[in-house]
Amino acid sequence: MDKKMQVPTKDEMKDSEEDVDDDSAVVSKKWRKHNVYQLMKSYPNRVTFMEYESDQLRSEVWSKFKRVLIDKELVNFVKCNECIALFHWYAKLGTTSLLRHRCSGATQEASTSYQKLKSDCIDKEHSVITQPTQTTIPQSDVSSLNDSMVVGLVKDLQPIRTIESKGFLAICQQMVNFGAKHGSQDVTKFVKSKRVMKSIHMTKIAKSLRDDLKANITAICNYTRFTFTFDRWTNAEKQRDFLLLNCRFINSQFELQSSLMGVQEFPTDIINTNVNIREHCKKILEVYFAESVVEILMNDSIAVTDGTSNLKGVFPTRLPCMSHKLNMVLDNTLSEGNLLSHSEIKFALLTLKNVVTYFKTSGLNTKLTCSLKQSFANCWDSQVRMIESYVKSSCEVQAILTEDKEMDRISDLNEVVLIDLLNVIKPFKSAFEDFSVETNITVDKVVPMFFLLSKYLEITKDDSEIIKNLKLNMKEMFLKYYTLENIHIAATALNPRFL
């Protein structure tokens, strides 16, 4: 075999002849032995093995051999379980040649590289190649690939952070796998149009996901209750409203499951009342449950929502969203109106915002190791990010302003106030992020978090008058919004960690 030979595609490897197995099942068209060896070496994920199955009396030889599958289709080869040697075989040939096989003599047929492939890549228990071949990729090719990604995102006016998203990486991985299996291809011949994607592929995937969720729910609905969250949002461009419903439940393995159940368009001409929202939630649930069960299910389940009046009566049993409550505490603390009574903090934030604006508009942000982040009105999280970014880069900012003779821009900036403010806010930000996680149960943390955050709001002897006033004001809002329910206390009491 020519060592420089390129691995042929699946169609190039096949002959036109077909083999017929004992059970009259058509086996995939023939492959050449050297092609299969090459495939095992270069693309091991395409080659798997299975036990021989037949309704007739099975020869003992099949305890030493397995059938070969390429791309999950049977081919006319078997492989020795011990030495990776391949033998051309189909039912009419019988097992005589297999019985004569001795592993010590077969190693000449399988080269040293294939012996290494066997030891590295074959799972002996299942006789399945599980690891892809590791190759050294030139750094220039890696750099070129990433350059192409950047150019593609820029052309489509997409943010560079897209490159780190799970969806983008999943697409890239599928492209790599497709190329490894079929070789270099013109992508425009295989990527379908928006119309086809929406009408065929999206519909098919959505149905599959619904069916899977329905099967999971059906398996446990007799002995569990559900927790629902729902929300509405508006597509301002097309003037369309939508209602989204999520459910969370414990499966039969006692694992927390979180699933999107559906999205319903909420007609703009319908009044946004709890009765109408409930009817749209019922429509989504009727996809998974019988109509007679839905009403009982909604009455027995719990909804977690914010405190908006039109959301409170959708489900009879409702729990407040604690991340929303913390959001209210922080929003009010850093709101324009509340900061009027904390003039030093307001002035420090305004001064810092002007510095950030100067660095962004003048292009100086690119000179910083950690760029300054701009804050937005009525967004406490952006104000925290702005302070954090300045604290990380304050030395570089001062050096640049000194060099440009612009130090007067921060001459009135009270860094001590900003750092003290950050120290007060950060525990609440961490708690907000903890309660916002969908994959963990958090109801048992509500009570411990109440006492922990209350402790952070206690006035100490080291606090300045500015921070003392802020803590008093913040504690008032904390006690107003962060209220405890009986279920929070019960959940904490049932958690062994808090006993």
From TrEMBL:
The keyword Amino-acid biosynthesis is annotated on this UniProt entry: no
Keyword Transcription: no
Region (Disordered): 1-21
Compartments it resides in: Nucleus
Biased composition (Basic and acidic residues): 1-13
SUPFAM superfamilies per the UniProt record, alphabetical: Hermes dimerisation domain, Ribonuclease H-like
Keywords: Metal-binding, Nucleus, Zinc, Zinc-finger
InterPro entries linked: RNaseH-like_sf, ZnF_BED_domain_contain
UniProt protein name: Transposable element Hobo transposase
Species of the source: Orchesella dallaii
